[in-house]
Amino acid sequence: MDSNYLRNLLGRLINGQMDIDTVLEKLKNLPFEDMGYAKLDHHRNLRNGFPEVVFCEGKTCSQVAEIVSRLAKCNTNVLATRAGIDVYDTVKQECPRAQYHQLARCITIENDTIHKYKSPILVISAGTADLPAAEEAAVTAEIMGGTVTRLYDVGVAGIHRLFSHHELIRKAAVIIVVAGMEGALASVVAGLVDVPVIAVPTSIGYGASFGGLAALLAMLNSCASGIAVVNIDNGFGAAAMAISIVRLAERN
Amino acid sequence: MDSNYLRNLLGRLINGQMDIDTVLEKLKNLPFEDMGYAKLDHHRNLRNGFPEVVFCEGKTCSQVAEIVSRLAKCNTNVLATRAGIDVYDTVKQECPRAQYHQLARCITIENDTIHKYKSPILVISAGTADLPAAEEAAVTAEIMGGTVTRLYDVGVAGIHRLFSHHELIRKAAVIIVVAGMEGALASVVAGLVDVPVIAVPTSIGYGASFGGLAALLAMLNSCASGIAVVNIDNGFGAAAMAISIVRLAERN
Amino acid sequence: MDSNYLRNLLGRLINGQMDIDTVLEKLKNLPFEDMGYAKLDHHRNLRNGFPEVVFCEGKTCSQVAEIVSRLAKCNTNVLATRAGIDVYDTVKQECPRAQYHQLARCITIENDTIHKYKSPILVISAGTADLPAAEEAAVTAEIMGGTVTRLYDVGVAGIHRLFSHHELIRKAAVIIVVAGMEGALASVVAGLVDVPVIAVPTSIGYGASFGGLAALLAMLNSCASGIAVVNIDNGFGAAAMAISIVRLAERN
Amino acid sequence: MDSNYLRNLLGRLINGQMDIDTVLEKLKNLPFEDMGYAKLDHHRNLRNGFPEVVFCEGKTCSQVAEIVSRLAKCNTNVLATRAGIDVYDTVKQECPRAQYHQLARCITIENDTIHKYKSPILVISAGTADLPAAEEAAVTAEIMGGTVTRLYDVGVAGIHRLFSHHELIRKAAVIIVVAGMEGALASVVAGLVDVPVIAVPTSIGYGASFGGLAALLAMLNSCASGIAVVNIDNGFGAAAMAISIVRLAERN
Amino acid sequence: MDSNYLRNLLGRLINGQMDIDTVLEKLKNLPFEDMGYAKLDHHRNLRNGFPEVVFCEGKTCSQVAEIVSRLAKCNTNVLATRAGIDVYDTVKQECPRAQYHQLARCITIENDTIHKYKSPILVISAGTADLPAAEEAAVTAEIMGGTVTRLYDVGVAGIHRLFSHHELIRKAAVIIVVAGMEGALASVVAGLVDVPVIAVPTSIGYGASFGGLAALLAMLNSCASGIAVVNIDNGFGAAAMAISIVRLAERN
Amino acid sequence: MDSNYLRNLLGRLINGQMDIDTVLEKLKNLPFEDMGYAKLDHHRNLRNGFPEVVFCEGKTCSQVAEIVSRLAKCNTNVLATRAGIDVYDTVKQECPRAQYHQLARCITIENDTIHKYKSPILVISAGTADLPAAEEAAVTAEIMGGTVTRLYDVGVAGIHRLFSHHELIRKAAVIIVVAGMEGALASVVAGLVDVPVIAVPTSIGYGASFGGLAALLAMLNSCASGIAVVNIDNGFGAAAMAISIVRLAERN
Amino acid sequence: MDSNYLRNLLGRLINGQMDIDTVLEKLKNLPFEDMGYAKLDHHRNLRNGFPEVVFCEGKTCSQVAEIVSRLAKCNTNVLATRAGIDVYDTVKQECPRAQYHQLARCITIENDTIHKYKSPILVISAGTADLPAAEEAAVTAEIMGGTVTRLYDVGVAGIHRLFSHHELIRKAAVIIVVAGMEGALASVVAGLVDVPVIAVPTSIGYGASFGGLAALLAMLNSCASGIAVVNIDNGFGAAAMAISIVRLAERN
Amino acid sequence: MDSNYLRNLLGRLINGQMDIDTVLEKLKNLPFEDMGYAKLDHHRNLRNGFPEVVFCEGKTCSQVAEIVSRLAKCNTNVLATRAGIDVYDTVKQECPRAQYHQLARCITIENDTIHKYKSPILVISAGTADLPAAEEAAVTAEIMGGTVTRLYDVGVAGIHRLFSHHELIRKAAVIIVVAGMEGALASVVAGLVDVPVIAVPTSIGYGASFGGLAALLAMLNSCASGIAVVNIDNGFGAAAMAISIVRLAERN
């Protein structure tokens, strides 16, 4: 709620500059956000440096470049996901500070200090083909302030690779598991730990993978507990969930 | 790892009661869990009073009663989900302390002090028909130590009902949103807050709801961020995820 | 917006009974609906006699009876859909004025004068097996004030039956087409008229009907225009849409 | 029915120029449309200026150009949907008055006065990616005589954006809601108003959006009433439905 | 077209008993079927004794009994499909000539001489569990005049059983293949013959049979030619198609 | 069975040139087709001029050209389906008599007299976009000896167009109905006639058409009888079925 | 091939009791199986004692009892799957030697010595709810001669339980993995061994398990190799595959 | 388990160079694979020459080339699947011994002697379009040591082609059946033999084949026994399963 505006309004009522009916009318027509419903933010002060996000898919290079450079001028941090190299090339001309994360297909621009969360976020991926979604998660979490460790290529077909990193797993505060094909890695990891596990099915696979449906269903039906799932290939969403968790953990 | 056993083994090696080859052989044949891989627990000490869980669906009354009473004898807390009243009646005879939560279709037995997490967990449901899943989440979270507030019957068709409770929403540390039909409530809530939102699609609906598929897909495709999804009607899973989050938040 | 409450508040501000900060705080905590966002009603005055609706599926007889009798005491009209005869029997004891519509599986209670809309709503059904959904639409439309004509059993396998009623079709202001199996009737009717056609797929059929999916997809893919679709077996929803249309047509 | 032809036929029977058997035979072989079944039009007089519609998908540029220019020569208005810029370039050469609506991917040619309907049609879209379907709806409604207002980019993840335009929503006679991903916007809007809401799911999204299926199912399962759905991305169909409604509303 | 009525009408016009406008009006309001569009029958004379068909599913015993006895009073033959033994018991009381075909779940009543088609219709089924659909096809074809041979339990897992009956297969004019599970029998049979093959997938199977979907898809994708498919378990539809073929073959 | 070979074998047995064991062994190892099971042809004599068929999809231009020219050298008729213009160009160089049917995407080569069937086969299509499948059916039927009439662009949205051709429909011996989108045309046509109707769903449509699934399901669930269905876009299969029917009808 | 019959036939040819044409005709009409194509058995001698199998689902108690007792009279072993206790009670009266395996829902009758295969078949199941399918596999394998070891309740949510049995796993010749929900166990096991793994998805689960589809898809998409899948809940099929493998392994 | 390391550790304990707590700590932190759980190999000695496998889909030419040449330098055999000709061209420059199998889209490099299994593996395919998957299976099996025979183009539409090769079928130890469209060949073959049959559905087909789903479901629902299924187009997986079987058969 914009207290100043309201305070001014009520002041004019007291002063007799406005009568009750005029004030009532004005209250009735206040834009919604002015009433305080815009965003029920818990810790807006913690959110300094939180990036603005642009989803590039279905937008042209110049459209993205325009949006990004407009945002960048506000001295805010920017994250653009699903961005091809051609999108980056266009953005780069406008915003020289833009950085490209090729595997993640993300562009980041750091204009503002990022509030750092110390709780370790571990991103685990099953196969090399899952790296784009895993990196989208990692890059997103980092620009949002996360402390990210990557543990890649530890699929269940060679489960000893996973177990050899048990120290890393033991230390994580939140774990993002990225896996395509049968998505079994999420259940195995969630069975090993007590911290929140966020599962990202990927569209990696062919035939009866049906574009990631097999992994998605497997993860939703996990027999392990302490696990929740985001959309297929949605590394961004997993990172946003992870950040909301570590933010909560560190807000006290 | 069973340190005592190992310490004893190594002691006997030093004492000359065993030679190196015998010890090597014994190490090689140690059951897996004895090697410390059983559960990479972070905070086992925090887990006092954590319940054993029995999923009753597909088990007979006497099977459940036997399992539950065996667990109850260990002075552990017990949670039995998807339990009909007939299951409860049978369990009650063996375990007089068993309590039945009719809407949730859960049985709980408190034998041990529950470690309480103070971070408020808010369970929101869209319609009265979603109550069984919502209550399964609430009862599960409570027996696991959660501090739960319920906010029911606030579906998006009358979205003002949701907004009138903005203070409740503002205070929550984790929010579980339970909704069937089109599942839109999850997106609306996640758009209002910055804390983790766990979405539970329910099988409520008919026709093109396809047993909860409509709500599930809607929640997976949420345009809001900071949201993750569990299986259809999986109130238990949502609560387990919520507890893993508040446990993390309070472990420091 | 509850003007009186606000007017009183502002009055106390002017009188000095409250200071600005107190008023600001009270404004901030006003329930949402008091701010006027509850329902952006266009013609609330037209809605006298509009029924309260209870969806009975998944509720026990006594639950429905309790809800219905509570509503009935408010002298409002009541419509309960998906109600079995046993539900009616229970309701009847509390509310002697309750009437049962067996085919429609609806209970209605008329406590208040219904505002009548004159624009004819025509409900067409393909086969006798589609009658439950068709009657749910007809009964719903009537208790909401609609003037309903029924044209049943005119499926496309004997399309001459449809054409023999062309005068009825010609006169309709809105047409609800209820059809299962291949759902072709909706396209044929919409191809004949220029008024809005609301298509209700039904779950009638077997095998590759997949519970009404075949009819639903057919209707969504209609090559005719001026047609929109509601959920499988959702006679209620079709009627609500039809009423919203005739209300609009007659509001001037 | 072509009265003149029939009148002439019967006249020749009376005059003895034809005998009964010849007339019977001729009646039997009358083309169907001559019998009056062609189109059971309600208000053909209201339809002056109503456009002919060409669906371009799957047709070559030259095919579309030929069809359109043939129609344009009849001094009728023309609407071509799903038309790429290359199609427009070809059409433009034949029909200099052709206009291209890039976002909507529509070509319009105004040769005749359009009958204007005053009832406001509001087109609401959730995200910028939904604009093509939203614009197809808006452009279609306009060439058919609709008075269209656009309210874009008001998705439920930031629901305050929607509420700040409540005056626009309050004034609408018919609302077309265009949304992809989880399609929740349709339920939220339909919960706010009493006028007919036509929901257009779009194919916007990825992964478990399954080409718009998620939004489609969500909209079909809406817990709000006064809502009906058209095919995925079918902006045209939504506009045709909206026009059929406002035509009805203004025919008196 | 009801020639007598029309002839009478035109006679009254000639006689001056009616004027042209009255006749025109009467022509305009003739029921559709009187105009000759009711049924474009090719060989109505061949259809003496063709049964009236009642689909019992979703109807109560008394409803079916009422319909059937009403039909039976017209001295027409009657076929009631999907009829349980209880339905038959009720029908039997009204219509003593009714016969029950238990496996086929059909009731037949022969009141009129059936026109016999000599072309042999062969009904082949894969397993014993497919018998209900196979018998529905056989009984339907017989009451419609077909000369039916049954060849049951010759699934592809023991393909020699099929081949030992090659003389039967060689002689058939039309073959109906009824198979559940993987539905492979249809392709094998169609690969052996040049006569029309009508494939009936059945809902026999479990798991990934998905209620007959597996067999349905297999049959639609048959690599053999001269094959077409009806709905899952639709023995009736297959027989109707077969009869339409032998009727054509014998109409000269 | 190759009688000469067997006769010779038995002759040598009688002559003492072979003993019983040798003959038994040779019988046991006879190739399958020599035993007469190769093809249980009914009327091989009727099949003179029947074409060899090549399905081009997934083959390169040169592969098709090689297969076709090899077949063409045998003085057999050839039909190549799903052939692009580039395939035709390659084939043409080898086989100057090859003809291309652009809409049907078929190549035909007539080297042999085609046995003509007089029973009229009517191919009806709903929209212009359905023409490729309709023409594949028509061209296939013609090269196989069918007498084909085409009735195109008579979809149910303007059902009078269909009815104006009732004479054509009345005369047909077999009808192939080709329709995409909601596929309603098949039911309407099958409701008008008693001859076999073969329904071809097409992949025409978008969104919830799901590549022809909507039309396929609609046709399988047709409430009309005397109808059977082939795979989506399978004009070839429908024609093969139609030919098998007219061949049967004319074999006496 | 029935050599005696053929030898006799050829003998009569040599003796002049039949002429060549008569013999040729008789050869042509020999039932198919007599020609040796009935079953291309590799090791019929190994198959002594192999059971006849009856699938009980969809058969009445008395039907099963009749089939089983007929088979039992032939001194063959019998396996009846999907048999309820009531089926067993009926069978037991006819065949006192019949044994019931309650969890497996199988009836077995041993009348003949079973050929024993020594290669160990290991049946692993994930949860107690998977036991019916696991036991169906175990009992089937045993009656077919398999040497079966059971390792139950070792799901991936507690993967240490699996690893503690590594010696059992190491020794297996073939492994059948039975798992519902997310089916991840199959991949984990197949990643540990080099012997053939047969995966049985079960219908255990709810919501997005879709009757076992989730587990089925997961297993088909396994990133491990040396794994193949059978139908949902098809313990019998897995055992039959396992036996075909150990038979092969021991045939030399 | 790395005995030397452990022996050394225990030696230092005895020698007093380490105390018990230090040794306990070190045991606890041993990498997983050192504990002997890495791979529970049965016959590692048999696996000399077993290839490393690279799945090329989704990798760039240079990525594949780098991985392959790195592997090739280890003197191991290499198999790269799903490799286009451009991938091969790049690999060839690094590894001159690389061979390309065009139909199979596989690259193989033989650096080491392959252990040969004598048991014949028969690869059967239904149509020419199924060759890529069939060849992937054949080439994979060969580089893994299999003795492979190919039997192609023997689909069930001309089942005599299959039967003429019964000797080949009779001799096979394992059979891989590769078929698209309706996938019926797998059932027919499995009905003829007692050896293990591995079914590979292919994505060949169109329309209701749904990318191989029809064949997959058919194979999973096979009424024959001794059959198991791999993913759509997964020739590699089928070969790996076949090799695991013949390895087992020959390990004694």
Q: Report the strand count of chain A.
A: 9
Average pLDDT of chain A:
85
H/E topology pattern of chain A: HHEHEHEEEHEHHEHEHEH
How many individual helices of chain A?
A: 10
Tell me the strand percentage band of chain A: 15-25%
Which structural class matches the secondary elements of chain A? alpha/beta
Q: How many domains of chain A?
A: 2
Biggest sheet layout of chain A: 5 strands, parallel
- Bulk shape of chain A: globular
Oligomer: homooctamer
Largest interface between protein chains, with number of residues from each side: A-B, 47 and 46 residues
Write down the CATH topology of the largest domain in chain A: Rossmann fold
Straight-line distance between termini of chain A:
25 Å
Q: State the share of residues found in helices of chain A, binned by percent.
A: 25-40%
Task: Provide a concise account of the structure shown.
8 copies of one chain form a homooctamer. Chain A contains 10 helices and 9 strands.
Structural write-up:
Eight copies of one chain form a homooctamer. Chain A is of the alpha/beta class and 252 residues long. The first copy, chain A, folds into two domains: 94 residues, no CATH class; 131 residues, Rossmann fold. Chain A has ten helices and nine strands. In chain A, helix 8 links the parallel strand 7 and strand 8. At the B-H interface, helix 1 and helix 2 of B face helix 1 and helix 2 of H.
